[in-house]
């Protein structure tokens, strides 16, 4: 197990290096750089900067250097000093901007993820055990509706409903009066009142997919001979289904952490914009549009790293759950 | 013999029906039998006879759409047939008073739970033992079923066990609740003959010692003759003949039983054709194999370090195949016999040795030196017949397409010519040419294997490699297919390499036999000599472990065990 872990973590290093290179190439891809967009906006306002200050800025950011030098400056700053560079757009270090937003993204995503599991797992088991029953058809229908409704519509509907009928202030994560207040029970309660909408909205679409995954996995397992063996031991139906086929059907389900987590993180952008949430998505979008390269790069890099961590987590969980993987 | 006056379990007029789209199917039809304390009833029949469904019905384990529609299963004061399938009543009987051993020791145990936890579960459930008590008892049980080092093995997983050891675990689970009735559904079918003999010995001994009633379900008349006290023969859901084992074997009354026994006994000696027409040993060698070997996985891991020696699946195999001869290759699972068959056609690339093919027209070729195009030419002359007649035919292709495909690919026939060639081939293997537009699902296992043979013959090959070609078939069909192959071999002067684990089939069909073990040929020679008076101790053990279908001459009691010489320890 220890060897397995070390090996898996070691494998992550080249992957991370590869990702960082790709991130950097992506943020360099659009023609021009941040300076050109600053200059063009300055020119629009009739404020023509002199060549000397342009050269000074260029040299300061290393924009005249070859691309690999720029990459090295960027990545060595991150790795050795924790310095993600300077956001041109905001006029602040990137590090100041991203952590809050990443934290909230992570919070919302993981809560949604837990909600997805809590809903999808029992429904998937129920659907598989009672295949083609009325309940199965009902949940299948519900699942497909959830899959088909675009998240932003659901977000708008939920906002409308909770505003009209519950009288809640929605949008954002805090009510205005708590925005800058110190943490306390009241603020926490306020957060909870705001948080449920994005979590539900984000969870709904992925839940449907996972119900199908669980249903299909478990249906395959239910007819396996080891289930008959367990039944022949005299175990009750609930115990034996939970102990044997569900246990084995969980394997592919756990692997889904690897792909659900990134889709959650990237997929919530629209929802975050609609709900005006201080999450990573909207900031990333803005950074990309304004060619704020270090900010965009930092986000892409960190989100990719999170995805890798998600995959690692699912691998570790799988190994804990399935001795066949552990012993390889 | 004195009989206990009351049977442990009585089945009366049991009928199990399956609701299908077009009406109902009676898988078990009006079946009655008794299980007596200390006695074993062998329930025999071919596939689809309803024997497994009967066994499962005894524990209410028949899943929908199957249903016990009438009859009684009297056990003590209760009638199991009346109990609800998922109720607590039947659950108190399952595993506690009736234990069951299943066929596939690999898939019948959970791969993600330790062996111990799967035994302990029963002890905790039925005997209400404490955690420690159950563990101690589980170790005892494992010792009883002769699993070595139970203290450590209890915490291991099933995939770390061999097939025979897994089946012992299965037996331990079945015995854990100290049952009065033991149901064994094809308990040794998935095992090698030597392992089968060991496991059957064990089951029989434990059943005798504990005075349990046993219901042994099997398709193997040999196993029945060795183990059972009474026999019931099932055919199409009915018991057609029942009685003490000696009576059923020696005073057979029902024509089906007679036919079944005849086809079993037929495979106990060489084919009549062979006796009448002993093929003169032609001097011409059509295939010469020398020092052939294959080492798997002798490689390096992701860091480039050399990790393993590799597994030597086949090593140092040399033989000659004569024209018109059939050479049997026998061995237990893992002996490398299937790999050997594939090496000859380089489906698996050999790592050592030479394969020289000498057709009657033209020059010898070294198969190992051929390029892709050359190899394709060889594929036309050396062809495979596969084991599983179900998965080796594409279900979406009609029989005409299946048999015609090799002809089309090689540009030999098309259009009307193809149709007439396919109908010739179908006739040759004893099928109606009119069937060529049908799809494989419309055929029985035996018919499918005939289709597979027709496909192999389509290109007029010189050599057939038949890998367990009859293993998936029922015994009565098996001899038909063998006779067909014998007949075709004579007519077309084919050479056949016949790979099988089944000594009987090899003795029936082959002129010469090579016995394989751990990737090597331990003995090669005339089929009759090898099967009646082998010289190598391993071959002796192998032959003596085959159950003999006559209760008057049980063979397993006198069987020879092959003790592995220490130096020859196989690499794991």
Q: Helices and strands in order, then pairings?
A:
The complex is a heterodimer of chains A (328) and B (572).
Chain A: H1 2-28, H2 34-44, H3 51-61, H4 67-81, E1 86-87, E2 92-93, H5 94-129, H6 134-148, H7 151-164, H8 185-222, H9 225-232, H10 237-243, H11 245-274, H12 280-289, H13 293-321, H14 323-326
Antiparallel strand pairs in A: 1-2
Helix pairs in contact in A: 1-13, 5-6, 5-8, 5-11, 5-13, 6-8, 7-8, 8-11, 11-12, 11-13, 12-13
Chain B: E1 9-19, E2 24-35, E3 40-44, H1 51-57, E4 66-75, E5 78-79, H2 88-93, E6 98-101, H3 115-126, H4 131-144, H5 150-153, H6 163-176, E7 181-185, H7 193-210, E8 213-218, H8 221-227, E9 230-235, E10 238-244, H9 245-250, H10 255-266, H11 272-276, E11 285-296, E12 311-322, E13 326-330, H12 337-344, E14 352-357, E15 365-366, H13 372-381, E16 382-385, H14 399-409, H15 415-428, H16 445-457, E17 463-467, H17 475-492, E18 495-500, H18 503-509, E19 512-517, E20 520-526, H19 527-532, H20 537-544
Parallel strand pairs in B: 3-8, 3-9, 6-7, 7-8, 13-18, 13-19, 16-17, 17-18
Antiparallel strand pairs in B: 1-2, 1-4, 4-5, 9-10, 11-12, 11-14, 14-15, 19-20
């Amino acid at each position: 197990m220890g060897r397995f872990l070390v090996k898996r973590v070691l494998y992550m290093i080249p992957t991370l290096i590869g990702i960082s290179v790709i991130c950097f190439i992506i943020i360099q891809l659009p023609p021009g750089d941040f300076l050109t967009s600053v200059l063009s906006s300055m020119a629009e306002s009739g404020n023509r900067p002199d060549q000397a200050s342009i050269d000074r800025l260029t040299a300061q950011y290393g924009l005249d250097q070859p691309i690999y030098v720029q990459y090295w400056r960027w990545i060595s700053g991150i790795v050795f000093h924790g310095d993600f560079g300077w956001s041109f757009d905001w006029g602040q270090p990137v590090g100041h901007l991203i952590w809050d937003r990443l934290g909230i993204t992570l919070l919302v995503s993981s809560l949604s993820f837990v909600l997805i599991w809590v809903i999808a797992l029992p429904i998937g088991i129920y659907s598989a055990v009672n295949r083609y029953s009325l309940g199965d058809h009902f949940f299948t229908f519900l699942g497909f509706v959830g899959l088909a409704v675009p998240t932003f519509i659901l977000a708008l509907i939920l906002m409308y409903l909770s505003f009209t009928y519950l009288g809640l202030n929605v949008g954002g994560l805090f009510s205005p009066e708590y925005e800058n207040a110190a943490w306390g029970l009241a603020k926490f309660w306020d957060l909870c009142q705001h948080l449920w909408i994005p979590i539900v909205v984000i969870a709904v679409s992925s839940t449907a997919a996972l119900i199908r995954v669980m249903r299909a996995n478990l249906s395959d397992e239910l007819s396996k001979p080891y289930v008959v063996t367990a039944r022949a031991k005299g175990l009750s139906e609930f115990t034996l289904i939970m102990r044997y086929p569900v246990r084995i059907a969980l394997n592919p389900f756990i692997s889904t952490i690897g792909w659900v987590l990134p889709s959650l993180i990237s997929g919530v952008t629209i929802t975050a914009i609609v709900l005006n949430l201080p999450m990573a998505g909207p900031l990333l979008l803005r950074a990309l549009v304004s060619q704020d390269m270090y900010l965009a790069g930092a986000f892409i890099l960190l989100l990719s790293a999170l995805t890798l961590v998600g995959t690692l987590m699912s691998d570790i969980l799988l190994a804990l759950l399935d001795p066949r993987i552990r012993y390889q | 013999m004195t009989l206990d006056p009351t049977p442990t379990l009585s089945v009366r007029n049991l009928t199990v029906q399956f609701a299908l789209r077009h009406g109902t199917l009676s898988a078990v039809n009006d079946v009655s039998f008794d299980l007596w304390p200390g006695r074993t009833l062998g329930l025999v029949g071919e596939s689809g006879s309803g024997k497994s469904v009967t066994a499962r019905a005894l524990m209410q384990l028949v899943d929908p759409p199957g249903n016990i529609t009438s009859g009684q299963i009297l056990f003590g004061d209760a009638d199991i047939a009346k109990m609800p399938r998922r109720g607590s009543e039947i659950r108190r009987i399952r595993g506690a008073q009736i234990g069951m051993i299943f066929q596939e020791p690999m898939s019948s145990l959970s791969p993600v739970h330790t062996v111990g936890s799967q035994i302990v579960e029963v002890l905790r459930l039925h005997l209400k033992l404490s955690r420690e008590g159950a563990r101690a008892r589980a170790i005892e049980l494992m010792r009883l079923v002769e699993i070595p080092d139970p203290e450590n093995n209890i915490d291991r997983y099933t995939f770390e066990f061999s097939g025979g050891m897994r089946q012992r675990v299965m037996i331990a689970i079945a015995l854990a609740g100290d049952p009065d009735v033991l149901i064994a559904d094809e308990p040794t079918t998935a095992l090698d003959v030597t392992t089968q003999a060991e496991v059957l010995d064990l089951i029989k001994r434990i059943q005798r010692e504990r005075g349990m009633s046993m219901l042994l379900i099997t398709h193997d008349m040999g196993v029945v003759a060795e183990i059972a006290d009474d026999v019931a023969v099932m055919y199409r859901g009915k018991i057609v003949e029942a009685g003490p084992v000696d009576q059923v074997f020696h005073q057979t009354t029902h024509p089906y039983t007679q036919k079944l026994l005849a086809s079993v006994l037929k495979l106990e000696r060489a084919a009549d054709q062979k006796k009448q027409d002993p093929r003169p040993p032609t001097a011409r060698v059509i295939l010469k194999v020398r020092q052939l070997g294959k080492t798997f996985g002798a490689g390096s891991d992701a860091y480039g370090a050399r990790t393993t020696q590799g597994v030597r699946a086949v090593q140092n195999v040399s033989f000659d195949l004569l024209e018109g001869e059939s050479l049997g290759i026998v061995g237990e699972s893992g002996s490398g016999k299937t790999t050997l068959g594939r090496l000859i056609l380089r489906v698996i690339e050999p790592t050592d040795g030479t394969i020289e093919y000498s057709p009657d027209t033209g020059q010898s070729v070294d198969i190992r030196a051929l390029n892709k195009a050359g190899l394709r030419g060889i594929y036309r002359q050396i062809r495979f017949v596969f084991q599983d007649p179900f998965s080796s035919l594409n279900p979406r292709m009609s029989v005409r397409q299946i048999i015609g495909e090799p002809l089309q690919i090689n540009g030999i026939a098309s259009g009307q010519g193809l149709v007439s060639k396919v109908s010739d081939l179908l006739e040759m293997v004893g099928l109606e040419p009119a069937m060529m537009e049908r799809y494989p699902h419309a055929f029985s296992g035996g018919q499918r294997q005939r289709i597979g043979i027709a496909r192999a013959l389509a290109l007029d090959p010189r050599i057939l490699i038949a890998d367990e070609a009859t293993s998936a078939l029922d015994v009565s069909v098996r001899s038909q297919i063998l006779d067909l192959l014998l007949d075709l071999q004579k007519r077309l002067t084919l050479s056949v390499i016949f790979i099988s684990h089944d000594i009987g089939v090899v003795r029936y069909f082959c002129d010469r036999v090579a016995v394989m073990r751990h990737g090597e040929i331990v003995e090669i020679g005339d089929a009759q000599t090898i099967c009646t008076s082998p010289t190598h101790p391993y071959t002796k053990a192998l032959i003596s472990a085959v159950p003999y279908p006559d209760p008057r001459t049980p063979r397993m009691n006198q069987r020879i065990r092959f003790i592995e010489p220490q130096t020859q320890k196989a690499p794991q």
